[in-house]
Amino acid sequence: MGKLFADRLEFLGGNVFATIDRVKQEVLRQGKPLIDLSLGSADLPTHPVILAAIAQALQDSSTHGYVLFGQTRQFREAVAGWFGRRFGIAVDPETEVLPLIGSQEGTAHLPLALLNPGDYALLQDPGYPSHYGGVYLASGLPWGMPLRADLGYLPDLAAIPAAVLSQAKLMILSYPHNPTTAVANLDFFRSVVQFCQRHGLWLIHDFPYMDIVFDGYVAPAMLQADPEKTVTIEFFTLSKSYNMGGFRVGFAIGNRQLISALRQIKAVVDFNQYQGILRGAITALASDETIVKQSVEEFQRRRDFMVTALNSLGWQVEKPQATMYLWAKIPHPNSMQFCQRLIYEQGIALSPGSGFGKAGEGFVRFALVHPVEKLQVVIDRLQNFLIDND
Q1: Is the torsion defined by CA of 96, 99, 104, 107 positive or negative?
Q2: Is there a contact between 210 and 201 (Cβ–Cβ < 8 Å)?
Q3: How far apart are CA 230 and CA 314, in angstroms?
Q4: Which residues face 327 on adjacent strands?
Q5: Binning pLDDT at 50, 70 and 90, where does residue 32 land?
Q6: Residue 253: φ, ψ to 5°
Q7: What are the pLDDT digits (tens) for 331-347?
């Protein structure tokens, strides 16, 4: 028998989460304690008012069937109203909004509608692994735009080779940025929109950390730089803002051609979430900012504690303006080896920077998904690890 599987599987053989998860499971099978800071899944509970809306729907048998696009109208109207209130941009819920099973569904599937084999996609390096995975699934060629600290972890658009740019069809950005925690302002977004318009690129902005911001920073939407939605589609999620990661509620807003194309892909892949979950999401989007503010205040406490503590250990960690992460340079040349040894020796799981791209090597990402009391344990164990491996 010839080759059994498609070539694209070679590029999808594993990612940072899968690799570290195997090591974590090995340690857990040995009965050792583990504190997991490798995955950005918040430990904070979903607010009771959201859960109540979902619970009420459970008793309504009309919510128990398949949910097709037409049955998401109420949710799409809630999304359009929320976006208009927040960013002052009118959105057509029929042609410019699409429900998603988490925003990752959008970033993974949209390249299937836009790329032919051999087309380039311009991505961030380091960047979120599913952005690369979606390009590989579409048989496209990812071009990593290096993000450097001295440039504020913003890509140097002028450095993209002309040969790559001539074959590129899309650019994917995400600010506030995972994993580096970098932020961008509206002027930068305007320059990106103009660049994409000039070079005939579709612009995809993944925006999951829009609410997890600190110290007065306000994260702009990419659509504020492209209010006519000429080239832009933006992905949103309730996972971070409302602690609803397990409910998998996301949505896309943007250019109606892109929305239509993604809807075509979605139609052959899946339906939508349970109607009761969408009712909970509607409740969340209609709520005041109190729900989100409580979570942000807790993440800020954790950020402040960990930055101070890590700096006391000799690590130069800057205080981020956004996200639930810290991005830290490590005293070791290989981030995967560093993280594996930290799990085996101290029961602390972090994400190695190399899993996010070549430019991430030499860094690790801390996910602030435990309360300060447990983070103190992390610091104590990390100090022991650094002493043992000095």
Answers
A1: negative
A2: no
A3: 47
A4: 365
A5: confident
A6: -130, 135
A7: 888 999 999 999 999 99
Is the pTM higher than 0.90?
yes
**Residue-by-residue DSSP string for 92-132:** -TTTSEEEESSHHHHHHHHHHHH--TT-EEEEEES--HHHH
Which residue do the tokens 């589609």 mark?
233
Q: Can you tell me the distance from the alpha carbon of 38 to that of 57, in angstroms, rounded to the nearest whole number?
A: 34
Burial label for 256, CB within 10 Å (0-12, 13-18, 19+), is middle
Domains parsed from the chain with CATH numbers:
14-40+290-388 (3.90.1150.10), 48-286 (3.40.640.10)
The separation between the first and the last C-alpha atoms of the chain, rounded to the nearest angstrom, is 52
- The predicted-structure confidence for 199-215, as pLDDT tens digits, reads as follows 999 999 999 999 999 99
Sequence-distant (6+) residues with CB within 8 A of 106 are 98, 100, 204, 206, 233, 235, 250, 252, 262
The CB-side HSE value for 249 (13 A sphere, CA atoms) comes to: 27
Q: What is the CA radius of gyration of the chain?
A: 21
173-188 tens-digit pLDDT: 999 999 999 999 999 9
For the chain, helix (H) and strand (E) counts, in that order, are 12, 12
HEC assignment per residue over 171-212: EEECCCCCCCCCCCCHHHHHHHHHHHHHHCCEEEEECCCCCC
Residue 113 to residues 76, 170, 197: CA-CA distances in angstroms? Answer: 22, 11, 19
Q: DSSP per residue over 30-97, as a string?
A: TT---EE-SS----SPPPHHHHHHHHHHHT-GGGSS---GGGGHHHHHHHHHHHHHHH-----TTTSE
